[in-house]
């Protein structure tokens, strides 16, 4: 390459220098605005620890806030409380009826025939409907099972909200860490671009190397903006879960997160899932409710009764009347009502049983999938921290030294920078996925920490 730069090359080089200055100014502004984020990125050559620690207290505070303020939990809680009011209602006798009677003779005027007719009377009475034997108790049992299912539905909602808070938090942590990595890599690319420019000036590099570096810097600006968009969207979702308004301040995300160890084997996980899953408890309660409904339908073959008592005041020359009445409601059309009601209740019970079994399979499948994800991410995190990232760092340092003495081309150097970035991004993505798997397992088996 000639030592003098042709006019065409000087023009492009001047444009490249202007673009480099502009990008440097933009990068400095972004770095200053995200100072708290940029210091999260560890040293490119430092190993990443995966030691087990407890869930951050900041995240625990957010979970407690969601449990106290989430509109979804509030709705489930009030519905559960409403269902507890039903058993006493359905186990209480129907309201009694009170009646007033006035019978006149010979004229519609009140008290007509009072002294002259033995058919005249005025009186009052009451009657009480009494359901057949065992019906009230079975209805109370059915309502109690519905209330129990409502309580478990509240627990399901609470665990789901807690898991959503954790998942969104871990995704925000990933975005925060990767944004810091992007800013750090952007600074690294600026150094590479300056190296390429220096090499170009002394004839040891091509002009396209400078342009390629500028292109990568511009693409990083786009990626940073996309990260800001994802952060804003995740913040909006987390505020909605917590019951906060969208114009409230953004939620702070912790600076550190280590992989949580969950020392529970597969057999123990399944045992805890079957015992503690509120979804399965709710399904079992609905199955028991179906059995109570069958028993109620069978009791409808028995008659309901009505007991009444009436006092009748007659004229002054006649004795008063006292009347006791007993009635029964006969299920005369049982083949059109009671038979079909029993068949309906049996079918609904079978449906509830099938639904309970389906939910059991689904919960066990989800638990097994999350256990597999947990074990896999644990191994992958170790590969990243002990193998891939240190090797990528060493490769980058070697390529940078070799490029300065023209032993490797610019594309090779640029690839090492991108490789280091992507591997560290993948590490944080795996770390977030690991914690999300822990959160999903805790949703099913309960927090065993």
Walk me through the structure:
The protein has 449 residues and is an alpha+beta fold. 67% of the residues lie in helices and 8% in strands. The chain has a four-stranded antiparallel sheet, with no helix packed on it. Helix 3 crosses helix 6. The two termini are 66 Å apart. Mean pLDDT is 80; it is low at 1-55.
SSE layout and pairings?
Layout: H1 7-33, H2 35-38, H3 57-69, H4 71-83, H5 86-90, E1 97-103, E2 121-130, H6 135-201, H7 207-242, H8 266-276, H9 278-299, E3 304-313, E4 321-329, H10 338-404, H11 410-445
Antiparallel strand pairs: 1-2, 2-3, 3-4
Helix pairs in contact: 1-6, 1-7, 3-6, 4-6, 6-7, 6-9, 6-11, 8-10, 9-10, 10-11
Main attributes of the structure:
four-stranded antiparallel β-sheet; disordered N terminus; 449 residues; alpha+beta; single chain; 11 helices
In short:
The protein has 449 residues and is α+β, with helices and mostly antiparallel strands.
The number of distinct β-strands equals: 4
What's the mean pLDDT score? 80
Q: For the largest beta sheet, what order do the strands appear in spatially?
A: 1-2-3-4
Work out the radius of gyration: 39 Å
Structural class: alpha+beta
Approximately how much helix is present in the residues? 55-70%
Backbone shape: elongated
Main beta sheet strand tally, sense and closure: 4 strands, antiparallel
Number of helical runs?
11
Spatial gap, N to C terminus: 66 Å
Low-confidence stretches: 1-55
Strand content: 5-15%
Order of helices and strands: HHHHHEEHHHHEEHH
